[in-house]
Design brief:
alpha/beta; two-stranded antiparallel ribbon; TIM Barrel; 8-stranded parallel sheet; 386 residues
Length: 386
Amino acid sequence: MRHFGHISPDAREGLFFEEPCVFTADSPARVLSVALGATLYSPATRPRLADDVIKLAGRGVVSMVLCLEDSIDDAEVVGAEANLVQQFAELERRAAAVPLLFIRVREPEQITDLVKRLGSSVQLLSGFVLPKFTRERGELFLEALTTAEIAGGRRLFAMPVLESPELLHLESRHETLRGIARTVDTYRDRILALRLGVTDFCSAYGLRRAPDMTAYDVQIVGSVIGDVVNVLGRADGSGYTITGPVWEYFRLQERMFKPQLRRSPFMGRAEELRTALIEHDLDGLLREIELDRANGLLGKTCIHPSHVMPVHALSVVSHEEYSDAQDILRSDRDGGGVLRSAYTNKMNEVKPHRAWAERTLQRAEVFGVARENVGFVELLAAGLAD
């Protein structure tokens, strides 16, 4: 699979200075953690789930979570588990290309039970999403994952979800974060990414952000995101990929504020695309993706297919970013210093910007580098057209 692999080779050649790499579920964890992109959640109860997975893979989705937790009723769990086993068997039978597939469980024992019941179709599974992750719950989940991995004969990753009230509450936040850090460090090779459960954070205070508000506008949520990145997202080799929070909206809502999407990038090219994004409340999503990046997050939890291509289009490295990153790393090998950007619009200070440059090139490997005259609008339009 590859990002933008659903569009034609000719179209990719016209968009990319360097095309996204090809990867598989067996690629190194450092590649897969960046490649997750827009991770689309789907309830495990869907009766035609195998068809959905194949169709979405053909539309550019590269990672999915099949959910047994909050997206389904408590009474549906047993049936949803049976449905998952049946749908995985169907995917194996059809030998179709599928995204990276993860199962979101409720309890640790579901991990070992499901791996046993999946049988040979476990080869299609990349891992499990672990909800309400704390030190105590996390250790039980990760022990079960280790046992299941041995039983299934397949590498399985964990994606803990940081969403517990203990993490949100100020008096317990630091101790909870330290406990989570110790737990995931013990199982570092199994941790693909950490996910943020912002909906649960808001729930603890009876809050819900509007479609013209980002998660960062809710100050109590923004503060906990900052602390999670502070402890678990460091660029010194000790950090993890931390993914952006879910965007809840996908239909037109009554607006209180004017649209956030500037008109100028669309002028003369795709004004109708801008209108469609605004009508579906995706201008707020685009702003939140940019704020995710600015705050050290990569990828995003998604609950609707219309969110996928905006996330991926904004994940492509611009030619300017790529040029700066290469210049910084080249100069770092030569001893450092300060240099003017090749685009003559900024200062690149080699040693302070080195970690940014390394992360940028990791993203460039997976999402590609756009040509000089190609921006978000062209990438999004091409991704949606196919």
